[in-house]
Design brief:
Layout: H1 5-23, H2 25-31, H3 37-46, H4 53-64, H5 67-79, H6 85-106, H7 116-122, H8 124-157, H9 161-209, H10 213-223, H11 243-259, H12 262-269, H13 274-308, H14 321-329, H15 334-363, H16 366-369, H17 375-397, H18 404-428, H19 434-454, H20 462-480
Length: 487
């Protein structure tokens, strides 16, 4: 079933409007152009550090929220229950730990990327290793998210998935290429407001459409088993969402994704001060808790609604449930707004990843970093990298992945635990050296891959395992080596 022409008009108008908003910032980039590459990098990749903390908080949430989140979270509670929310508890604790232990290090120097801190501690080669880990992992994980765009658009328009990916990513490349970090931050603010409004409307409409209201929801949920369960205190490591894997595993997950991933750290570095950066990160945690609560409740209400009006055909993926409801059941006009909100998430997430991938490529590798001190040439290289990574993400978006939300989190969990261990090693162990750091990262990655391949442990534990192995092996090897030798 295709979308109504009015809804299609709203979606297209939104896509063009947000692209135009982002492109306005090109003039600001030109006006703020500086004479050297350091100042140009600060302007293009950090927005000149002029954004208010609340805008950065919105940008952080918009960046970590993707299309696979907004359609994947309801799919999880539709198919299972609310226990995913336990992972969000860890998201909150992880943010506090970042503010206490990792954030101060970023503001002790004039750093433009997360991995400049690694160079200061372990040397240029380890900076390149850390940046390469980020680039590969972020590109693949973002490819999973991009593929979610195709899923939504194929349901809405009946077009080919490749055409959908090309359209949305091309528009995102355009305004990210032109406007840099300022365009990313302020379009993130607009897009977060759009998709949060859309999600709240979806929740209210669903509640209104269910005969009997909340009493019907609780009755159907009870008949289905533990549909409204949100706590599980099991210590079974194979269970994905328990209180312990949520709080412990989720906190390490957040320390990795928000404390070592350039995509989020770039926003923390864009703050005017460490205090503003802390306020932005902690505030984003509260917003994330609210939005995941809404997303998961939508999934439960979709389950109850489907008992009266089935949405999925036999064999359909649960990830299709929300797009199908929006197309088939929402009033004309309102459906267009809500579909645009899903597009908003996709473009917001992709733009943030594009800018951070370009920043790391340009700033973390010596050949590019030392290429020229001329600001104009630096901006040309930076924009060229933005375009190149856009094409890479588009290519990954064509790949067929598994269950969207969990696939994206699993991809990130494999190497990012080791990356977190590297940062913790540099922060807490003064005796650690480059050799120990390198061997520790390698050991952490091997152990996590082995756990993934040969055990039934849930992905929520991978970040903790990778970080701990990297830290302890790195500390041990550093002490065994009498002196540091080249890698």
């Amino acid at each position: 079933m295709r979308v109504h022409p009015l809804d299609l008009t709203i979606v297209v108008a939104y896509l063009l409007g947000v692209t135009a908003l982002g492109m306005r910032f090109r003039r600001m980039q030109q006006a703020g152009a500086a004479a050297d590459s350091q100042a140009a990098g600060r302007e293009y990749f950090l927005g000149g550090r002029t954004a208010p903390w609340w805008a950065l908080a919105f940008s952080i949430v918009a960046t970590e929220t993707s299309t696979l989140t907004i359609i994947g979270a309801p799919a999880i509670s539709y198919a299972d229950n609310l226990t995913f929310i336990q992972l969000v508890f860890g998201y909150l604790l992880g943010r506090v730990l970042i503010v206490l232990f990792l954030l101060p290090g970023y503001f002790r120097g004039e750093f433009l990327t997360a991995y400049a801190l690694i160079e200061k501690r372990f040397g240029e080669k380890m900076r390149a290793v850390a940046a390469t880990t980020f680039l590969i992992t972020r590109a693949i994980a973002e490819g999973v998210r991009v593929s979610a765009i195709a899923l939504v658009v194929s349901v809405v328009l009946g077009t080919s998935e490749r055409l959908a990916v090309m359209m949305v990513i091309s528009l995102t490349i355009l305004y990210t290429f032109e406007g840099g970090m300022k365009a990313v931050i302020w379009t993130d603010v607009a897009q977060l407001l759009v998709y949060m409004t859309g999600s709240a409307i979806t929740l209210l409409v669903l509640f209104h459409r269910i005969p009997g209201g909340w009493s019907e929801v609780t009755q159907v949920a009870a008949a289905a088993g533990h549909k409204l369960q949100f706590l599980n205190f099991s210590w079974n490591l194979g269970t994905k969402y328990t209180f312990w894997s949520g709080v412990i595993g989720g906190s390490f997950l957040t320390m990795a994704t928000h404390g070592t991933d350039q995509t989020i750290v770039q926003r923390l570095l864009a703050a005017k001060s460490e205090r503003d950066s802390s306020r932005a990160l902690l505030t984003s945690g509260g917003i994330v808790l609210v939005q995941f609560t809404v997303f998961l409740l939508i999934g439960v209400l979709l389950f109850v609604f489907a008992q009266h009006s089935p949405l999925l055909a036999p064999g359909d993926r649960a990830d299709r449930i929300l797009p199908l409801f929006l197309v088939r059941e929402m009033p004309v006009g309102l459906a267009g707004l809500l579909l645009a909100s899903i597009m908003a998430v996709a473009m917001s997430n992709a733009s943030g990843s594009l800018n951070s991938l370009a920043a790391s490529s340009v700033l973390d590798f010596a050949k590019l970093r030392g290429r020229s001190t001329d600001a104009r040439q630096f901006l040309r290289v930076s924009r060229g990298m933005t375009l190149a990574w856009g094409l890479v993400l588009m290519g990954f978006g064509f790949v067929k992945w598994g269950p969207l939300l969990e696939t994206g989190l699993t991809v990130a969990s494999l190497p990012f635990g080791s990356l977190l261990g590297l940062f913790l090693l540099g922060t807490f162990d003064r005796a650690a050296n480059a050799r120990g750091a390198f061997v520790g990262m390698f050991a952490g990655l091997v152990v996590v891959l082995s756990v993934f391949q040969f055990t039934k442990a849930a992905y929520t534990w991978y970040f903790l395992i990778g970080a701990c192995v990297t830290f302890f092996v790195g500390s041990l090897v550093s002490r065994m080596a009498r002196k540091e030798s080249p890698l």
